[in-house]
Design goal:
The structure is a homodimer. Chain A is an all-alpha fold. Chain A is built from 10 helices and no strands. Chain A has helices at about 5-25, 35-40, 45, 55-70, 90-105, 105-120, 125-135, 135-145, 155-175, 185-200. In chain A, α4 packs across α6. Chain A is elongated, with a radius of gyration of 19 Å. The interface between A and B is large, with 61 and 62 residues. Chain A binds a DNA duplex through α1 and α3.
Chain lengths: ~200, ~200
DNA sequence: GTCTATATATTGATAGAC
DNA sequence: GTCTATCAATATATAGAC
C-alpha cells in the first residue's frame, strides 16, 4: 500500500472513530457530518471522499463490528438451525451473545436502533429489521416445533417478540448512565423469563 | 366561550389533528412545523400562538389520548396493586390493554417512541421512560413476590423487560403496513410467552 | 388571533486551489 | 486526498400589518 493510500485509510479510520465517539455521546441522529469531521480534525469536504453520507458511514461501522465479532454473531453464515431454544443452556447462550454484542458495541448498535426508528413508520423498516435480525431465532424455533415442542405462537412472531425485548431493553440499558447493571444477572433474568415461556404449558 | 376563543380553539384543534395525521404518515421526526401548519391550512406564525414547539404539541396529543383512554390506562390513578400477573387471566388483561392502546392510538404512541429514541443516549431518557411506563407492572410484580411467587428477577427489571417487548413490538407492528396481524393472536402469544415465564420454575 | 414576510441558524453538499 | 470557501436548501422562530 502506497503512502497516499495509507494516509487516506488513516483519515477514513479517524472519521469512523470520531463518529463512534459522537454516536455514543449525543446519538446518531443528533450527530452532524460537520461534527464528525471536526472531531476527527479533518475538513468537511474530506468526508465525502470516503462516504456518501452518514448512513453509509454507519454501514461501514457495522461491517467493522461484524468483522470483529467474528464467531460470536454467526447469524448469517453456517449457524446450525439444530438448536433447541427450549433448552435453558442453549437459550442462555443465545441471549448472552446478543446482550454482549449490545454492551460491547453500544455506539454502533444504538446508532442502528436510532436509524431504524427514525425512518417513516409507514416504511415498515422497523418490522422488517426486527424480522431480519431474528431470522436465526425463527429457524431455531421452527426446529423446536418440529421436535414436538409446543410454542406459544407462530415462530416468526415469537422470534420478533424476543428480539424486541432484547433490542429495546439493550438500548434503554445502554442509555442509562450512572446506573450500573449486573450483566450476568440481566442475562439470567431474561433467560428465566423466556425459558419458562418457551417451555411446555402447565 | 366567546367567538374569538372558539376560533382559537378551532385552530388549535386543527393543528393537533393535522399533526396526528402527519405523524402517522411520515413519522414524528420527519414532520416539520411548517408541514403541520400547511396541512392544517394555517399560517406558520399561528403555530406558536398555541404551542412553544413540536414537543409541546406532542404532549398535548398525549394528554388528549389519556383523557379519552379513560379507564383503560389507569396506570397513574387508583390502579390497585393487588393484581397477580402470574395469573394468566390478569396478565392477559394487562397485555390486552397495552396492545389495544398501541393499536388505537398508533400515531401518538409511535411519535412518543420516536421522540424517546431521538434523544441523546446519554440522557437516559429511554431507561427512565421505560421504568416510568412500567411502574404499575413493577408494583404488581412486587405484590406477587410478596405472595410467595418466585419471579425470574428483580421486579423493576422484569417489568422493564416486559415493557420493552410490548413497546418495541407494538412500534414494529404499527410500522408494518400491508401486513395484517390478528391482534387477538398476538395478545395470546405474548400472554403465553410471559405467563409461563412469570410462573414457577420447572 | 391570524396573516405575510423575513431574520437567523443549520446542515448537506460541492467547486476549485493546493 | 485534503483543504478553504461557499452555495443551496431547510427549518425554527419572530416582527409587524390587519
Amino acid at each position: 500500500m502506497g503512502v497516499r493510500k495509507a494516509k487516506a485509510a488513516e483519515t477514513r479510520a479517524a472519521l469512523l472513530e470520531a463518529a463512534r465517539r459522537l454516536f455514543a455521546e449525543r446519538g446518531y441522529l443528533n450527530t452532524k457530518i460537520t461534527d464528525i469531521t471536526k472531531e476527527a480534525g479533518r475538513a468537511t469536504g474530506s468526508f465525502y471522499e470516503h462516504f456518501a453520507g452518514k448512513e453509509e458511514l454507519l454501514q461501514a461501522l457495522l461491517q467493522g463490528m461484524e468483522d470483529r465479532a467474528g464467531e460470536l454473531i454467526d447469524t448469517t453464515t453456517v449457524h446450525p438451525r439444530e438448536h433447541d431454544l427450549t433448552d435453558r443452556a442453549q437459550l442462555r447462550d443465545h441471549i448472552k451473545v446478543s446482550w454482549t454484542v449490545f454492551r460491547e458495541h453500544a455506539p454502533v448498535v444504538s446508532a442502528l436502533f436510532q436509524a431504524m426508528v427514525a425512518d417513516e413508520p409507514g416504511s415498515g423498516r422497523a418490522w422488517n429489521d426486527l424480522v431480519g435480525e431474528t431470522d436465526f431465532l425463527r429457524r431455531h424455533l421452527e426446529y423446536s416445533a418440529e421436535q414436538g415442542r409446543d410454542l406459544p405462537g407462530e415462530p416468526e412472531l415469537v422470534a420478533a417478540a424476543i428480539g424486541a425485548m432484547l433490542s429495546m431493553l439493550g438500548y434503554a440499558v445502554n442509555s442509562a448512565r450512572g446506573r450500573d447493571f449486573d450483566d450476568e444477572a440481566v442475562i439470567d433474568t431474561l433467560t428465566d423469563l423466556l425459558h419458562r415461556g418457551l417451555g411446555p404449558r402447565d
